[in-house]
Design a protein that fits this description.
about 280 residues, 8-stranded parallel beta barrel, 9 helices, alpha/beta, single chain, 10 strands, about 40% helix, globular, TIM Barrel
């Protein structure tokens, strides 16, 4: 029996969340990532029972092993400001519940900015938000901490910061990590060849633990190594290059995780080409 990697991309839920399965399958994907609501607004409508039922039924038919949701962009879980912290935590609480209802496996969260108050403050605030959301959830969705690109005051660009958050989460069974290749490269971790990938991923294993890695965001980088620019590029067209992307894909254990493209594809044809290219690099 041939092993089928979980390879996909971020897809739209326009019309209805269950249509994400159709859109993913249309481009040859075997997993996907979605927003369950508008990522640029605080307000959202509750999920209807019929919507949940269709989503779960479509998943059974599609046979996808793992699917991923991404938090909206507005929350700042690291924020020391009380009002921002309150609405950000509410947003996370509700998003975990939405994922639980839909049966989504992983919720990827951006870690946010400590606004100059220091990494320790940001780490504590993020862990507190995760603990609150998990405690208020009756499902099994895991929260995944996404490593950041190293922008000013951001939390999570260093492996030690991610480990610090993980260590403070009470239910260890429901927290993990999502690594983004563009973010890694922009924050100073080289990925341009096999040796560089080995060094970076071995360090991740040493500091965080490879078993904590649950999802990979596969993106090339418009910015050079250490640029701190969160600018995704199409696979093989950026500063990491095909050689580096291929090396990352072939690092032991990577293909056992969902691999999600967030590259700047513009239409159905470029989506298909992106998935096809990654399959070629996998082989």
């Amino acid at each position: 029996m041939t092993f089928e990697p979980m390879l996909g991309l971020h897809v739209s839920i326009a019309g209805s969340p269950d249509l994400a399965f159709d859109r993913a399958q249309e481009v040859g994907a075997t997993t996907f990532q979605i927003f369950t609501r508008n990522p640029n607004q605080w307000k959202f409508k509750p999920l209807e029972e019929e919507t949940v039922s269709r989503f779960r039924e479509k998943r059974k038919k599609a046979g996808f092993r793992r699917i991923v949701d991404h938090m909206p962009y507005l929350p700042n879980l690291a924020s020391p400001e009380r009002s921002t912290m309150k609405i950000s935590r509410f947003s996370l609480d509700e998003e975990v519940k939405r994922c639980d209802a839909l049966g989504i496996d992983y919720l990827v969260i951006h870690l946010g900015s400590h606004l100059g108050k220091g990494i320790a403050v940001g780490v504590s605030n993020i862990a507190g938000a995760c603990n609150e959301a998990i405690a208020g959830s009756g499902g099994a969705t895991s929260i995944l901490l996404e490593g950041m690109a190293g922008q000013k005051n951001s939390v999570g660009a260093r492996f030690e910061e991610i480990r610090g958050i993980l260590d403070r989460v009470e239910d260890q069974s429901r927290v993990g990590v999502c690594l983004d290749s563009c973010h890694l490269f922009a924050s100073g971790f080289d990925l341009r060849n096999e040796e560089a990938v080995d060094n970076t991923m071995n360090l991740f294993d040493e500091v965080v633990g490879f078993d904590r890695l649950k999802v990979v965001h596969l993106n090339d980088s418009k910015g050079p190594l250490g640029s701190r620019l969160d600018r995704h590029e199409n696979i093989g067209e950026g500063k990491i290059g095909r050689k580096g992307i291929r090396s990352l894909l072939h690092y032991p254990g990577i293909t056992e995780r969902p691999i999600v493209l967030e590259t700047p594809y513009k239409d159905l044809d470029t989506e298909k080409k992106s998935v096809k290219l990654v399959r070629a690099l996998l082989s």
